[in-house]
Structure formats: structure tokens, C-alpha cells
Design goal:
Layout lengths: L3 H6 L9 E5 L4 E3 H17 L7 E5 L4 H13 L2 E4 L6 H11 L3 E4 L4 H11 L2 E4 L7 H7 L15 E7 L7 E6 H14 L7 E4 L6 H14 L2 E4 L5 H7 L5 E4 L1 H8 L14 E4 L6 H11 L4 E6 L3 E5 L13 E2 L4 E5 L13 E6 L6 E2 L3 H7 L6 E9 L5 E6 L4 E3 L2 E3 L1 H9 L4 E11 L3 E10 L6 H11 L8 E4 L13 H7 L10
The structure holds malonyl-coenzyme A (MLC) and adenosine monophosphate.
Length: 506
């Protein structure tokens, strides 16, 4: 019985007492122990009636057990749908309904709120807390430590990851077994990962970066990971002397640089620091090199495409660039209007094609057609160029997107809520440079009549949206700047408020 992803990532480790996850309580979970638990969870999924192709949605704190649910889903051919722990019940309702999840696993603290959603959709609700306890584990413990692997091929779906869109409606990106496997195989080799690697794993496991890039590479290379529930610079520094590599968003690196304990000596055991998910300032690269003598390796990816480009492991890691297209990834820069390919050095929309590119958006054929061309090229919406040395540079975004600490925020989602409030004529949400998160959302609001109550505006956002999407500031303005076509000029607003959180010294 073949199962493309399970056979490559997990099966080779069965029965091996090699270390897989080093936990902060000092214990180490071996590959074998991890896989035995995954098999028990897989057995529980069978009992609960899940079959290949069904969806399992999971919103839980990061833990080894949460990762074992991922392994169990792969083994059983169940489509894994991890969700940001910050999402509110309103946000979750959409994902659960849209995906048609048959099982939802949540933190016990959220069980009451989420049961109102699952009561409507008919999904079964189980729990799992950050310490690895809950009704899912209760159901798993009576199951055998080996379970049948369900046959799955490269084109079968392995995961849905929801990404927001410019219209404010999230789309479920359908990722196949081959999308995930081909990309992690390429990255493992490109970045020189081996069984001797010990990865500092502080990223959340509900996004591509922490789940597919970090975890899948650790599994493929047979190395281990120091598995932390969240990023904390003190803990990272404590663990760094026994680690070899780290993957992080730029905020990880700026926070480390703000820490006095982060020195050349502290980083001496590390062979590789990787950054991605958001733009890294050239200044951060320089400060990092001055402090540690090492250059951060920056790469570029997306939920829909996994990783597309990377700076080289050997050779020049060029600050301000995301490196070269990865082996097997075709990349071109195209005119945003006509779609024709542009010459080297010209700025246009980045399009990519390869085994890494997803299947489309779940039950959204029109959205899929808008972004995924018939010839297989995916229109990323990122603006970039290929420089004279062949390095890709991202110079901006054609899409109206804010990235805060590596989390994506689509302004439309916030604007729709604000526009619905009394005293609001219209609004525009923009991303403003932020020293810690890179960018933060700010709402510019045009009043109507007596104008809005800003506390109420913030409350409305809090009720509906995850904390990281809340505007950090609300600005009241008589009118929004518009061009002659009547389109709101967000660029002008971004210019006006560029130094809101990063005041320029005078
Ligand atoms: C937390 N908060 C955030 C935030 N994360 N606000 C804005 N942006 C964020 N990213 C909120 C908290 O709820 C808290 O609210 C306040 O901000 C400050 O919290 P904190 O303790 O300072 O934040 P922390 O919990 O330390 O989290 C920051 C972070 C985390 C950067 C470590 O956000 C993180 O791990 N980001 C990684 C995201 C990621 O994995 N992205 C990959 C996407 S995949 P309050 O109420 O206390 O003010 C992808 C493809 C690719 O993009 O290429 O990889
Ligand atoms: P997501 O939809 O969460 O996967 O976010 C993907 C987006 O993150 C991309 O379309 C880019 O805009 C951005 N991104 C990822 N890596 C980088 C990077 N190294 N530099 C700049 N932007 C990046």
C-alpha cells in the first residue's frame, strides 16, 4: 500500500529510537514514540468514521500531540486543516462550514463556543490542550500503536490552508501530497539538512512555514527539532548552543538583535539562520552579520506555492533579495495588465510554476481561474524583478495585503467591519511600517453625521477578528484621497502615515 507523503516523511522512521522532538521540559520524543502515538490517533480517526478525503480542522496550541494529528491525517489520507489559534469563533465558523470538516479539534477552553458551530454543521468536536490532553487523546490511548496506512498518490490532497483574499473572503488552498513532498525534498538538499541537524522550531504549526517547511524538512533529513510552543528570545538563546539551524520570520531576528545575550558566541554552534514569510530589511541583515559573523539566508514562499526562491547555501546571500528560483520552480516577471513576460531588470508581477504549486482553491473555480493560469503559472500578486545577477527582488505587492509579524491581513476584511458601524461613511485600512511586526494595520475612517465612536469601532473589530488583525490606530479624516478614476489612493495614505510607529529622528 503506497502513500506518497507518509512513505517519505514518516514510514522510514518507524521503529527508530532516534530523537525527533526535544521538548522544553527536558524530555525527548523519539521518532518511534511519535509515530506510535500518531498511529493511535489514526486509529481513533478510523473509529470516528473519518475516511480518506474527509477534512479534519484543528485549532489548538502547539504541541507534539498536535503534530501527531498531522501525521495521523497523512497516514489515513485525511485532509489536514490547521487553523491559527488567534482566530475568533466568527472566523472559525466560516472555515469549518466552508471546508465541510467532519471533525474539529479545539482547545478545551474554546469547546463551548465552537460546539455552537459544530452543532450546526454536524461535525464531531474533540479537544486537545497545549499539554497534549483532551478527548482526542482519550480516544486514541485505547488504540493499537500500529495502524493501517491508507493508499494515497501524489495528486491526492494532503492539506487545506486558508488564506485571506482581497475581497475579504478566505480561500482554502488545496495542497497535494506531491506539492508538499517535492518542495521539502528540494529545500532539504538546497539548505544542506542532514540527520545531524537540530532545528530551533519556534514557529506556529498552522502555517506553511512552521508546518511544511520546518517540520517536513526535519522529518525528511532525519534530524531533530527543539520544539517550542512559541517564540521567546530567552528560550531561543538558552537552546541555541545545542542547535544547528533556525527558521523564522523577520520579527524573530529583530527581537534577537534587541537582546544583549545574542552575541557571536551565542550563535557559534549554528550553521544556518533562515528567514521568510515577510520582507526583511537590508539593515537587519547587516546588523545580524555584524553581530554574529553569519549571514541570514532569505527565501520567498506562499501558502499556495510552498517555497519558490531561496538565496544559496553556498555562495552569496544577497541582502534585499530572495535569491534564485528553486530547482524545479519556473519563475517569470510579467506585465500586470497583459501578462506578457518582461525583460530582466523590469518590475512586474511574479508568476511561478512547478510541482510546488497548489491545485486550486476549494470550491472556488472562479478564484482559481483568476490566479492559476491554464499553463500552470500561478500569479503571486507580488511585484518584483530579476536583477543583473539573477537574484529575485521583491519590491512590493500588487495585492492589497499587510504582513504583520509573518501573519497576513487583508484590509478588506477590516474595512467591511468598520464600514458597517454607525457614524462611518467609508474607511481604508493600510499597512504602516512597524519596528517589531514589520507592518501594522491602521484604519483611516471618514465620518458620517456625528461620526463614529472609536472605542466601539475597535470593539467591533475585536468581536469579529483575530487580535493580530486589529488596527493599531484609528485615524479620522474628512475624505480619502482618490485618483481621477475615483479609486482610493492607499499609496498616498501609506506615505502620509509612514512614520506613525517609527518616528523619524529630527
Ligand atoms: C501576536 N500578536 C500579533 C502578532 N502575533 N500582532 C500582530 N502581528 C503578529 N504577528 C499580538 C498578540 O496577540 C499580543 O496581543 C500582541 O500582539 C503582542 O504579542 P507578543 O507576545 O509580542 O507576540 P508574540 O506572541 O511573541 O508573537 C509574535 C510572533 C508571532 C512574531 C512571534 O506572531 C509569530 O510566531 N509569527 C510567525 C507567523 C508565521 O509563522 N508566519 C508564516 C506564514 S506562512 P496583545 O493583546 O497582548 O497586545 C507564509 C509563507 C512563507 O507566509 O513564505 O513562509
Ligand atoms: P502567505 O499567504 O501567508 O503564505 O504569505 C505569502 C506572502 O508573504 C507572499 O505572497 C509575499 O508577499 C510574502 N513573503 C513571503 N516571503 C517573503 C520574503 N522573503 N520577502 C518578502 N515577502 C515575502
Amino acid at each position: 500500500m503506497t502513500n506518497t507523503l507518509f512513505d517519505a516523511l514518516f514510514a522510514p522512521h518507524q521503529g527508530k529510537s532516534t530523537p525527533f522532538l526535544h521538548l522544553l521540559d527536558g524530555s525527548t520524543l523519539t521518532h518511534d514514540a511519535f509515530l506510535r502515538q500518531a498511529a493511535q490517533i489514526g486509529g481513533a480517526l478510523d473509529l470516528l468514521g473519518l475516511v480518506a478525503g474527509d477534512r479534519l480542522a484543528l485549532q489548538v496550541e502547539k504541541s507534539a500531540e498536535a503534530l501527531a494529528v498531522y501525521a495521523a491525517c497523512v497516514q489515513k489520507g485525511v485532509i489536514f486543516l490547521p487553523l491559527n489559534t488567534a482566530y475568533t469563533a466568527n472566523e472559525l465558523a466560516y472555515f469549518i462550514e466552508d471546508s465541510g470538516a467532519k471533525i474539529v479539534v479545539c482547545d478545551p477552553a474554546k469547546e463551548a463556543a465552537i460546539s455552537e458551530i459544530t452543532a450546526k454543521t454536524g461535525a464531531k468536536l474533540l479537544t486537545l490542550d497545549g499539554a497534549g490532553n483532551g478527548t482526542l487523546i482519550d480516544a486514541a490511548t485505547s488504540q493499537p500503536e500500529q495502524t493501517q496506512t491508507v493508499a494515497r498518490g501524489p495528486d491526492d490532497l494532503a492539506a487545506f490552508l486558508y488564506t485571506s483574499g482581497t475581497t475579504g473572503r478566505s480561500k482554502g488552498a488545496m495542497l497535494t501530497q506531491d506539492n508538499l513532498l517535492s518542495n521539502s525534498e528540494v529545500l532539504k538538499d538546497y539548505w544542506g539538512f542532514t540527520k545531524d541537524d537540530v532545528l530551533l522550531h519556534a514557529l506556529p504549526i498552522f502555517h506553511t512555514h512552521g508546518l511544511f517547511v520546518a517540520t517536513n524538512i526535519a522529518l525528511l533529513c532525519g534530524g531533530s527539532a527543539i520544539f517550542m510552543a512559541a517564540f521567546n528570545p530567552d528560550t531561543i538563546l538558552e537552546q541555541m548552543p545545542r542547535a544547528t539551524s533556525m527558521m523564522g520570520v523577520p520579527t524573530f531576528y529583530t527581537r534577537l538583535l534587541d537582546h544583549d545575550g545574542f552575541t557571536r558566541d551565542a550563535a557559534a554552534h549554528m550553521r544556518l539562520f533562515i528567514s521568510g514569510s515577510a520582507p526583511m530589511l537590508a539593515e537587519t541583515h547587516e546588523q545580524f552579520e555584524a553581530r554574529t559573523g553569519q549571514r541570514i539566508l532569505e527565501r520567498y514562499g506562499m501558502t499556495e506555492t510552498n517555497m519558490n526562491t531561496s538565496n544559496p547555501y553556498e555562495g552569496m546571500r544577497k541582502a534585499g533579495t530572495v535569491g534564485f528560483p528553486l530547482p524545479g520552480v519556473e519563475l517569470k516577471i510579467c506585465d500586470p495588465e497583459s501578462g506578457t513576460e518582461l525583460a530582466q531588470g523590469e518590475i512586474g508581477v511574479i508568476e511561478v510554476r512547478g510541482r510546488n504549486v497548489f491545485k486550486g482553491y476549494w470550491q472556488m473555480p472562479e478564484k482559481t481561474r483568476e490566479e492559476l493560469r491554464d499553463d500552470g503559472f500561478f500569479i503571486t500578486g507580488d511585484l518584483g524583478l530579476v536583477d543583473e545577477d539573477g537574484y529575485v527582488q521583491i519590491v512590493g505587492r500588487g495585492k492589497d495585503l499587510i504582513i504583520s509579524g509573518g501573519y497576513n491581513i487583508y484590509p478588506k476584511e477590516i474595512e467591511l467591519i468598520i464600514d458597517d458601524q454607525p457614524g462611518v461613511k467609508e474607511s481604508a485600512v493600510i499597512g504602516v511600517p512597524h519596528p517589531d511586526f514589520g507592518e501594522s494595520p491602521v484604519a483611516v475612517v471618514v465620518p458620517e453625521g456625528a461620526g463614529p465612536d472609536t472605542t466601539q469601532l475597535m470593539q467591533a473589530c475585536k468581536d469579529e477578528l483575530a487580535r493580530f488583525k486589529h488596527p493599531r490606530e484609528i485615524i479620522i479624516l474628512d475624505a480619502l484621497p482618490r485618483n481621477t478614476m475615483g479609486k482610493v489612493q492607499k499609496n498616498a495614505l501609506r506615505g502620509d502615515y509612514a512614520s506613525l510607529f517609527t518616528p523619524t529622528e529630527s
